[in-house]
Amino acid sequence: MLKIALFAVAAAIAATPSRAHACMNEVERTHNDDVRLVVRAEKLLESGAYRQAGKVLKGWRFKDTRLRERTLDVRAIVALRLRSSKDDVAWVTDHFKARTESKAGEKDIRFRALLAEAYFATGKTDEARTILADLHKRDLMPDEYAYVTLAKLSSGTERYELWKACRTKAKNKDVCELPADTVGAKRAAS
Amino acid sequence: MSPCAFAIALVIASGCSACSDRSASSAPPSSPPPLPTVARVDASALIEKLECTRCHEIPAIAAAPREKHCVRCHQDIHAGTFATDPPTLARWRGRITSLRWAPSLAGADRLRRAWIRDFLLAPHDLRPGLVAQMPRLAITAEDAARLAAHLAPDVPESALAIDPAIAARGAELFRSLACGRCHRFTGAIADDPALHEQGRDQVEPLGGSWALAPDLRHARARMQPAQLAAWIAEPRGAMPRLGVTLDDARALAAFIATTPLAAPPPRTPIVRLPVLARAVTWGEVEAKVFRHVCWHCHAVPDFARGDGGPGNSGGFGFAPRGLDLSSYAGISAGSLDDAGERRSVFAPLDEGTPRLVAHLLARHTEEAGGAVPGIRGMPLGLPALPLADIQLVDAWIRQGRPR
Questions:
Q1: Is A32 exposed, middle or buried (0-12, 13-18, 19+ CB in 10 A)?
Q2: Residue A21: pLDDT band by 50, 70, 90 thresholds?
Q3: In CA terms, which of A108, B185, B359, B400 is 20 to 30 Å from B311?
Q4: ipTM of the complex
Q5: What pTM, to 2 d.p., does this model score?
Q6: Is the peptide bond before B386 cis (omega within 30 degrees of 0)?
Q7: Chain B neighbours among A 65-124 (CB < 8 Å)?
Q8: Residues B345-349, mean pLDDT to the nearest whole number
Q9: Closest CA of chain B from A152, distance in Å
Q10: What is the per-residue pLDDT for B26?
């Protein structure tokens, strides 16, 4: 009897169609609690609520590889933006380097920008500048953080223009603040 | 209309004993003349590549898996059989208007091969009751010809003879059978938009027949009269059986194929609206445009377990473009070009229009019967976005894409 019941359950699982294809994000976001959680954390990231984003995913380890990777992305961004120690950023650099080199990530320039941000945070300014200058030249800067990071690596009018672009895009203009010694440069440029 | 196209149909319709198709003229109403059987080309590999079965039923080709079948999925949602909670079902039902029905290609064997080929290369709105239309696929003329040759036999054009009396009887039948309740017949005197609108109520009970009914304006280009008469007498797919005699079917076909058609009304030229002076944010443009329309095909792959839609992961014969319009960072990350390199979707094209805006405007050009070289109109196979929505996207880009 038990065998029959198990067989019935297995057959039902096998017959249930996977809701996992194009146009299915809405389905996944409605039905899949894991996806909902990751999406919630990412929305918090977008709004700049890093601490909350980190809390939402704290302790979670998902079965799905892609969700696991996205969870790590969230944690890495939280660590990068709230950096409290050099150690935090070191693993972040490794993480985004691996992401840019992975098959899924090699075409995703967002990881390149995040890697550049991590390089900048660890003092690898040449590496950071190379990546961001390329993205900027191709109008592929993903967000205000990429602009402000490149601004910090630039000077003169270019620095001012990047700072201005950051302020245009950012909801929270504080993100675009440059170190005090550059204020004069901003004024001079304007 | 080729002169010989009418010959068989109208000579048959007039009952000419000298040269008519005897088997057809003596057949009972339920047995119209059989369509000529000419060997077809097997384009099943191409059909698989283009994923035609995600929308269409095609004889001898397996349907797309349920989770990839756009139409079935939407039908399940409307039928209440999609496994989800009632509030979600109600919400989705209220939103899903497109791709609820698609014509079965089992009936494509009544069509002219050349028409199918031309339609695939330059699709236009054929069925006024459907929201979606045939998308402009990435196919060559050879591919289109091959598909047409798979779907329809190569039927020689027939010789011509016109009998106005038969056509006049067909006009009466057209009215008495209320064909206009499902079919528009734009340009013809018989066209009755008000009656057609009344027929909208029949969408659900008739399983989409109203929505799938083509504008009969195109019938004479699509079919030879003999094929049209055969179809009316014994339709397949969504077209309901009218219970007409074969003579009546021939009269109707003669009317549909010969009644004078006025030229289509001239299209209002597309006037791009000026860039908005007021501030436009990502939140507004996302809610009104990207999240509302674009996101369905240009999504993030991870949440749908590896498929970000045809505009991201590829599909319907399109190469993966990696375009994610579901987030600010996603749209800023651009799309993949033909060489697989990232490019900005905001970059101005030759005339200064941002690429993204150019795609949205191109859809208007396509609806007007044109095409923009190198730019596919978006949203693919759906009505063009209102110009005010395009203006919103344009303004957001020109204002520096603020969050």
A1: buried
A2: very low
A3: B400
A4: 0.82
A5: 0.85
A6: no
A7: 66-67, 69-70, 107-110
A8: 95
A9: 20
A10: 34
